[in-house]
Amino acid sequence: MPDTLATIAPARPRRPRIAWRFGILALVVVIAAVGVLIWDVPGAPGSRGFGIAVNLRVVSVATIALVACCQAVATVLFHTATANRILTPSIMGFDALYVVMQTALVFFFGSAALSATDGLLKVVVQSVLMVGFATLLYGWLFAGRRGNLHIMLLVGVVLGVGFGSLSTVMQRLLTPSDFDILSARLFGNLSNSDPDYLPWGALVVAGVLLLVWRARHRLDVLALGRETSLNLGLAYRREVIGVLVLVAVLISVSTTMVGPMTFFGFIVATLAYQLSGSSQHRVVLPFAVLLGMATLLVGYFVLRHVFYAAGMLSIIIEFAGGLFFLVYLLRKGSL
After folding, report:
1. How many Å apart are CA 228 and CA 234, to the nearest integer?
2. Environment class of 170 (CB within 10 Å of its CB; exposed 0-12, middle 13-18, buried 19+)
3. SS (H, E, C) 109-141
4. Helix (H, G, I), strand (E, B) or coil at 306
5. What distances in angstroms separate CA 188 from CA 94, 95, 214, 259, 314, one per listed residue?
6. C-alpha closest to that of 103 among 315, 260, 263
7. Which of 9, 171, 192, 262 has the greatest CB tally within 10 Å of its CB?
8. Count of helix runs (H) and strand runs (E) in the chain
């Protein structure tokens, strides 16, 4: 019996080592955030120009923190629900759905519709559509007796490919000027965020994070797999659907604010598993969030003040993430 319990119970992290790593990550986040806020700010401290510049940078730092929380937590939760650390939420077609919505808007109403419809209402509509799509998909696929996670993932992949193909067809029919404007919107860019969205996005994300933290012990059980979860008395189907809906909410907030970021969450979650040395969500989730913030803040600072190419951050992260994904997959040898 002790051996059986040892294999079922999540690995306990070594507290001193974990505390040191967590403290170092937190220190990096603070230093990088301060650097982004005050480095090379025009004007003397306390002047009107200095205050305006810092306020603009506060929006960037807040956006980075919000996106890092969304991507990191959503990916860890998706790994927990699917019991697979290779998959990412983008496999369910969330990014493709965002792309097809933006493309359809330009295709039917022209590129001027993108700026004309910008506002909180557009963000809410996009988020509701993405979450509604996910909820209907999960509920439908898990409702029947034959419903299971593998069929849901397969359907998500097929829908993602279908959305991508539809977007490609519409994009080929656009004028060059409309296509250029649309392409700029479809690249994940931290400068795309509107400060008016931040309070609402932060409120939604805070509510989701509170629910996730309260369910952290159930998530530990869910990560053990379907059979073990059922044997331990967990309502597996209900928990999986609930987790996936929360993932949809987080990804929809991140995507509607800054655009698609396919591999960023995968990098952060994978490194969090390695650095934390634990499978417990109370340890992994904070590590993933801090890693996400540190990665984006340090990258934003270096590209903005060293290479003067802050807009390239998401492109570089996605390129590095794609290589990291391929290397990890080849080393693992299977999905």
Report:
1. 9
2. middle
3. HCCHHHHHCCCHHHHHHHHHHHHHHHHHHHHHH
4. coil
5. 14, 11, 31, 4, 6
6. 260
7. 262
8. 15, 0
What is d(CA 130, CA 151) in angstroms, rounded to the nearest whole number? Answer: 20
Is the predicted pLDDT of residue 268 greater than 60, yes or no?
yes
- Could you give the CA distance from residue 244 to residue 249 in angstroms, rounded to a whole number? 9
Domains of the chain (ranges; CATH) run 17-332 (1.10.3470.10)
Q: Please provide the distance, in angstroms rounded to a whole number, between the alpha carbons at the two ends of the chain.
A: 31
Q: How far apart are alpha carbons 108 and 194 in whole angstroms?
A: 24
Burial code (b: 16+ CB inside 10 Å, e: under 16) for 267-298 equals bbbbbbbebbbbbbbebbbbbbbbbbbbbbbb
Q: How far apart are CA 191 and CA 212, in angstroms?
A: 28
Residue 303 DSSP label: H
pLDDT at 214 over 90: yes
pLDDT at 149: 66
Write the pLDDT tens digit of every residue in 30-65: 999 998 888 877 766 666 667 777 778 888 889 899
| CA 303 remoteness from chain centre | 21
Which residues have C-beta within 8 Å of that of residue 68, sequence separation ≥ 6?
A: 268, 289, 292, 293, 295, 296
Interior CA angle at 240 toward 101 and 85, to 5°?
A: 80
| 277's tokens | 């040395």
Query: Whole-prediction pTM value?
Result: 0.84
User: Token match 């060293």: residue?
Assistant: 306
Distances (CA, A) of 255 to 63, 95, 128, 201, 234: 12, 7, 12, 11, 32
